Known about the structure:
Order of helices and strands: EHEHHHHHEE
CATH architecture: 3-Layer(aba) Sandwich
Low-confidence stretches: none
Number of strands: 4
CATH superfamily: Thiolase/Chalcone synthase
Strand order of the largest sheet: 1-4-3-2
Number of helices: 6
Number of domains: 1
Structural class: alpha+beta
Radius of gyration: 15 Å
CATH class: Alpha Beta
CATH topology: Peroxisomal Thiolase, Chain A, domain 1
Shape: globular
Strand content: 15-25%
Distance between the termini: 14 Å
Amino acid sequence: DLRQPPxxxxxxxxxxxxxxxxxxxxxxxxxxxxxxMGVVAAQLWRDSGLKPQDIQTAFIxxxxxxxxxxxxxxxxxxxxxxxxxxxxxxxxxxxGELPINTNGGLLGEAYIHGMNGITEGVRQVRGTSHNQVxxxxxxxxxxxxxxxxxGLILAPAG
Length: 158
């Protein structure tokens, strides 16, 4: 018997891109994408059997704001080049279609390399977050947009 309902990992993935240089993206011919996250996304969706529209809230690694946009695109929440229009206050805030970083994210809470995203994801699954999203069944968490890029999907047990 646990004091809190458990959250389970539905899928987890790490990825690297063929043209990755150390932990940077700026040596690439095209710096408008994040192919490592595309690798992670493909594995998460394949292993979980879910799609982006099955996610109720997400914790997008936000060490630099532009990487939030590229991750939203690579994860399939919107098409390439569409994140600037997708990322509206109405859509990504609490009460919106896809609330992200309800804990304040790395920039608003603490920069501890994504661990706080996992913690807030578990709180969302348990229903104990201070900024609780209603009807949470699946939570996406990403971390480390350098190598290795990673992500996971959390869900309630059972």
